[in-house]
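ERR on first pass: missing label on line 2. Operator R.T. fixed the label and resubmitted. Corrected input:
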Amino acid sequence: MQSESVIDVIEITKSFDGNDAPAVDNLSFSIHKNETFGLLGPNGAGKTTTISMLCGLFNPTSGTIKVHGEDLRVHLKEIKRDLGVVPQDIALYPTLTGRENLNFYGAMYGVEKAELSDRVETWLDKFGMTRSADKRVQSYSGGMKRRINLIAGILHNPKILFLDEPTVGVDVQSRAAIMGHLKELNDVGMTIIYTSHHLEEAEKFCSDVAIIDHGRIIARGNPSDLITAHEGCVNLEDVFLKLTTTALRD
Amino acid sequence: MRRLLAAMKKEMLLLVRDGIGLSILFIMPMLLIFVMTLIQDAAFRTLNEQGIPVVFINKDQDTLGNRIEQGLKDTELCDFHTRIDGEIATEESARTAIKEGKFLIGIIIPEGATDAIEDNIIGIVSESMGDPIVQEGDPTQAEIKLIIDPVASKSFITTITSQLREFISSVKTRIMFETFKEEIGELIPAGDAEIKDSYAQREVITYDQEYASELTGEAKPNSVQHNVPAWTIFAMFFIVIPIVGSVMKEKQEGSVFRFHTIPASYFLQINAKLIIFACVCLIQFLLMLSIGLVFLPMLGLPVLNLGNSYFSIFLVALACSFAATGYGVLVGTLASTQQQGAILGSLSILVLSALGGIWVPAYIMPDAMRSISELSPLHWALDGFYALFLRGGGMLDVLPHVGKLFLFFGVCIGLTALIKRAKQK
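pass 2 clean. output:
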């Protein structure tokens, strides 16, 4: 039996001024508790717009988003406490140290001082950042920045974590560490919504994926089920290319 | 509260770690005050007709020449010189020096000027005593020559010629008195000559000048009284640039994106910026005051007169700090890129400062410009400081200025909220 849904997206559409076609077109889906949900699609498919609406950054033009059964638009402030966001861009202060950045963002999420200190130390240790924690972020490698960027989004133990391409531009070791720890978080009950162009990673990591193109979901299901359902496909990338075609996108 | 403290700590760390930005914030206004005060010192002296460089050539070497020499030496009006580069001044060397801008005016008292006056007086006295002297040829005349630098103001020339007329008149009166005394002495034995002399030396009508100020000392617009508050205000408002930089960096580095996903108002970050940058403004203010009180006097400039109400000074400085930071946040929110914000911020401050009387005091502006200048928040702040530093005012005198500055701050923050909301939509 499938677990309770934590996010219900009901017929949402998002149009931006000056664009003829909507960025997101009458999208409906649900994400269940403890799921690792991958939102996959080519550039301009509507992934970031969808994630941004799910985080409450802006409202859909029409339709409803419910989180734990509550309307996101109405209960945004309360719902935000349960959300963690790891943006694709490194959203850190370069002239602050890794520890200072984490202490700041943790405090912004309202984590108590003593508890925050413990959590910062724990995560720095898990991600192998303890020795570099007191160096300025501007001196970090791309992988180190990605790790701190991720920790900043999970310090408040969110119930739902949004990850927008969390491993872009990092080396194999950093990627393995990031994905490993995300799996651990999922194992302890965190629901993860994830976007990536790295389809091999998504195939291994996600319990459920939705392939989105032109603002609409064109396939949805467990990665292995999707591979089986599409004749001649041996991996998720084959399915993706079959559905979205090989034409280059803007 | 903890969130606000954390945001303030973050702002402070970012500011402290931007060594170049921080040094510019403090060193730039200090240099401005030093340079502008020294440059404008000469202009203010001219405006107040004080210490104007004058070269004097006394060819007369008699009563008139000596009286004028002593009179000009004694007045604050002139920076009096009889030598040029160590040599006794001549008409030629004076003309050259004035052309070179070393002096504003040269005064040449011709040889025999006193004799000319004496001849004239003797003629008048003899005529009035019924014993006219028949002169051969033209009556003796003397011409005092003025060599003037074309940049000298008309009012200054008028003042100098008036002074000369006064000196000539006093010498004439004295000679006339002496001549009459001699003539009368021949008719009546002189028993009380000394007493008459002391009467003659008395000034019966004198002037009492008073500045409309509560200050006990002399408080008049000089380069220090104007430049220290003016450039301090300018520097405080120039905090717009680092604030714009701070707001724009957060937009570009993605922090704003994260703030919008955090269960706290974005205005928490804005409030932290306002508090930290307002503190920076206050520190700037203290530093600039110390320059006026300690360092400028070391360069021979007047000491900054702070007036009587220190709390009112703090109040105006605080209101000015918040007006400046509020404006910075507004510009930062309005701009789409850091370059756009920097240009908009710096140009608008330059315009507002020029209008507000920072570059040139508003009281010497034309009427129309003076009316416009009253719309500038920098003018409200400057007028507040003038009320304290020049007129010796107190709390009641600065409250309207403080009120306008806080209102300006409120309008800036209100507009920021509206723009933020519109942009988010």
